[in-house]
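Hello forum,

I keep getting stuck at the same step: I have a sequence, I want structure tokens, and every attempt I make locally crashes halfway through. Rather than fight my setup again tonight, could one of you with a working pipeline run this one for me? It's a single chain of 256 residues.
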Amino acid sequence: MNPFKIVRIGFLLLIFLAVHFCASAQKLRIAVAANAQGLIKKLQLDFKKQTGIETEAIIGASGKLTAQIMNGAPYDLFLSADTEFPEKLFKAGYGIKKPKIYALGSLIVCSTFDGDISNWQAMIKSEQVKKVAIANPKTAPYGRAAQESLKFYQLEGQIAPKLVFAESISQVNTYLQTAVVSMGFTTEAFLYENSDKTKLKWTRINPESYARIEQAVILLANANKTGLAKANKFYDYLSSASARKIIASNGYHLPK
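Reply #2:
Ran it on my machine without issues. Output:
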């Protein structure tokens, strides 16, 4: 064989191997709703322990992450705080598989001062409460749930001047931790993330006052570039006994 052809074939082979190595070494990029910021860290550790696959989590409000995906953000999976945004992505052709529910959320209200939080409907109207934080209902499903609950109890109009709209649920949590607000609506998972860092009065919101919070995962088209097999493993992992145990022990309920 012509020696120049041998060199050329060898060169092309090296390029192929380099591309293949880079693809295999690339981390899975997972867009994650802010409410699951603490949960995803535990899932990442367990997933790596089981598979050896590295992952990177990008945290934000579900609506903002959806907009980023539709504008070309290179995420491989998306863990939303609802089903609406993943369904929107799937219908628009951004998903490889139909979204599946991996967790059910629980809405709570927290207070930064002493008082009977179990009677939160009365507390929130009192002069003692100056500011009340909720996540932006347009982009954060937990903010939407909080708004629904306030409407259910006919409180939204009464406390409108007190409402502080945060960019995401993690910003609500920061406001609570730093006592920027007197009260705030957040996810029960927040208590598990911060049990040693902050002491807050809290109570669960009656789930009949807001639509069920079904959190879904969708496998995104970008996974074809990063490594579909790896992305599929994480997608399937979320339904495993190991993942479900972690999810259930961090403030969430499990889908049947």
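Residues 3-25 form the longest helix (23 residues). If your local run keeps crashing, start a new thread with the error log.
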